[in-house]
From TrEMBL:
The keyword Ribonucleoprotein does not apply. Belongs to the LysR transcriptional regulatory family. This is DNA-binding transcriptional LysR family regulator. Residues 1-58 form the HTH lysR-type domain. It comes from the Bacteria. It holds the Pfam family HTH_1. Keywords: DNA-binding, Transcription, Transcription regulation. GO terms for molecular function: DNA-binding transcription factor activity; sequence-specific DNA binding. GO terms for biological process: DNA-templated transcription. The keyword DNA-binding applies.
Length: 301
C-alpha cells in the first residue's frame, strides 16, 4: 500500500477537509484528492464521504485509519529511539488544556521548552472542553478528572485552590459579606449550567445552596473580567486572580475549594520523545509553582 496514500487518509481524518489536509502535508489539495482516489482504487473500497461541510470516513475508512495511525506511530517511535533525539527533539506537539490553565499559566512558561528544543513546535488548544486522544484531537490533554476508560496513560500533576472573589469597588458598594449565608444576597458569576463539560466546574453547590448565577459564561476569562468590572462575585482559581490586584478574596477561611489537574497521553504515544519531554516539562512547571497554585496572593486578601 502506498504510504503517501495512507498519509492523505490520516490528514483528512484529522483536518476534515481537503484544504486542511493539504496544509498539513504541504501539498496541493488536488494531490490529496488524487491520493485518496488512488487508495480507494487500490483496495476497491469507498473510504471517504464527500459533503459540502467537509469529509468524513466510512466504516472501512475508520478501520484503515486505525491501522495507518499505528504504522505512523511505530515509525515515529523507531525514529526517536534510533536517532536518540531526547537531547533535542523535533516535530509538533498539540496540547489540549482548560482555558485559564493553557492561556494564563502554561503559555508564558513555554519559552524554556522551545529554547531548549528549537526544532519543536507546540500547538496549544486552550478551551474548556474534553479532548479525545484516540481521535488525535491532542497529543497531551490536561484534564480536571481522571478518564474512566481508554488506552490512556494518566498521572496527577498538581492541585490548585479556588475562592470567591469580587472587585474592591463592588464590595464597597454592596452589603458586607461576613458569612456564607450573606453570599445568597449577592449577584453571582459562574458557568452556563448545560455547557459545563466536567462536574469539577460545578462549584456553586459547594459554596452555598440556593445560589443562582445572574451572569453565566463558558469562558473563565469572561467570568473574571465581569467580576473585575463589578458585576458580582465569582469563583476563581488563586493563580488566575493573582494577576488582578483589584479582585479581593471573600470569606477566605470559610470558602476554599480544591481541584486537581491530570495529564493524559495515549498509551501508544507515551514513548515518543517530543510527547514525553513536553509532558514532563508541564509537570515540572506545576511542581515549581505549588505555592502560587494553592495560596492566594497577598494583594487579593
Amino acid at each position: 500500500m502506498n504510504w503517501d496514500y495512507l498519509r492523505a487518509l490520516i490528514a483528512v481524518a484529522r483536518g476534515g477537509t481537503l484544504s486542511a489536509a493539504a496544509k498539513m502535508l504541504g501539498v496541493k489539495h488536488s494531490t490529496v484528492s488524487r491520493h485518496l482516489a488512488g487508495l480507494e482504487a487500490e483496495i476497491r473500497t469507498r473510504l471517504v464521504v464527500r459533503a459540502p461541510g467537509g469529509l468524513t470516513l466510512t466504516d472501512a475508512g475508520l478501520r484503515l485509519l486505525e491501522a495507518a495511525e499505528a504504522m505512523e506511530l511505530q515509525a515515529q517511535t523507531a525514529q526517536d529511539e534510533i536517532s536518540g533525539r531526547d537531547v533535542s527533539i523535533s516535530g509538533t506537539v498539540r496540547i489540549g488544556a482548560p482555558d485559564a490553565f493553557g492561556a494564563y499559566f502554561l503559555s508564558p512558561r513555554l519559552t524554556r521548552l522551545l529554547d531548549q528544543n528549537p526544532a519543536l513546535k507546540v500547538q496549544l488548544v486552550a478551551t474548556p472542553r474534553s479532548f479525545n486522544l484516540t481521535k488525535r484531537e491532542a497529543d497531551i490533554a490536561i484534564a480536571l478528572t481522571m478518564p474512566e476508560r481508554g488506552r490512556l496513560v494518566t498521572r496527577k500533576m498538581a492541585t490548585y485552590g479556588l475562592g470567591v472573589f469580587a472587585s474592591a469597588a463592588y464590595l464597597a458598594d454592596k452589603p458586607a459579606i461576613r458569612s456564607v449565608d450573606d453570599l445568597r444576597r449577592h449577584r453571582f458569576i459562574s458557568y452556563i449550567d448545560d455547557l459545563i463539560f466536567t462536574r469539577e466546574l460545578d462549584y456553586l453547590g459547594e459554596v452555598a445552596t440556593g445560589i443562582d448565577a445572574a451572569f453565566q459564561s463558558s469562558n473563565l476569562f469572561a467570568q473574571m473580567h465581569a467580576a473585575r468590572a463589578g458585576l458580582g462575585v465569582c469563583i476563581l482559581p488563586y493563580f488566575l486572580a493573582s494577576g488582578c490586584p483589584d479582585l479581593k478574596l471573600v470569606l477566605p477561611d470559610a470558602v476554599r475549594l480544591v481541584r486537581s489537574w491530570w495529564i493524559i497521553v495515549h498509551e501508544e504515544q507515551k514513548n515518543i520523545a517530543r510527547v514525553r519531554i513536553t509532558a514532563d516539562f508541564i509537570t515540572q512547571e506545576l511542581a515549581n509553582e505549588a505555592a502560587l497554585l494553592m495560596q492566594p496572593a497577598a494583594h487579593n486578601l
